[in-house]
Amino acid sequence: MKKMLTVLPLVLFLFSSVNALQKGGGDSERGRFYVIGTGPAGPRMATLQALDTIQRMNTIIASKDHIELFQEYIGEKPILFDPWAGLFDYKGKFFKELSRQEMAEFAKERIQTRNERVELIKSILKKGQNVGLLDSGNPTLFAPSHWYVEQFNPEDVVVIPGMGSDAAAMAALGKSVIPAHDARYVLQTSPVYLMSPMMGGLQMLKDLSRYPTTMVLYNALGNPQQLFAILNTIYPPDIPCAVVYWAGYTDKQKIIRGTIANMGPKLAKEKEKYMGLLLIGRFLEGKPYESAMSQSQSEKNKRISHKK
After folding, report:
1. How far apart are CA 158 and CA 57, in angstroms?
2. Number of folded domains in the chain?
């Protein structure tokens, strides 16, 4: 009897914890909005936490591709909507192809669509149910899910980490990104933030070019010849480059290699303009890690020598 009295509170605690988790957390009256990082290439590259979270959701928000990839874990759960439909296209056209008038109309409709969807999600959370949005790769790096996330109170949002396409691309290349030769930092961004006239033009890129770096560039394949024509005026032409297309996909992954001098024409021949990550730097040649360690030891020896 004494053992039963000891075990019973533990059982009740575990039951209440599981129930609270299913309801979305400590507040059993309200659900949570989960942004689930799914990795770059389906369940095989998703974390166990991500797969478990998908299974625990009451409702799913996902694109057609995500639904197909994660059907085993989604099961019969209702699909609320495709989160990206209408956010990057308007009347059958990609937003970059729109006229000035169409862009103005698109901007208004885009916000209206987003706001309507946010209210729909909030109405489900009020019922104590959890909603899970499936976002590719790392859900905090160039992740469009934040178009929704920032419309919620922080306590209503749970972000489940996922492996980014950068990790898959780096693994495909099999090189040490840093330490790498004399590289001082890794830059992860999109060319628009370094080159756009609205962002200050090329001055920032020129300033950064004074220091050896490894660059990981997203959304960089739309106009590769123009991009590399600019890079060629700032960086040495022999710096190696690589694009990893469909990183992590065993049946689609492909690597194109070159230099700043010749990469533009090579990439211009490729049809894929979105699902690729551009990496630039000396890390792509030789033994970057060993070289960096050797340079570090050499500098250390010099300091010791000076002290004597």
Report:
1. 12
2. 2
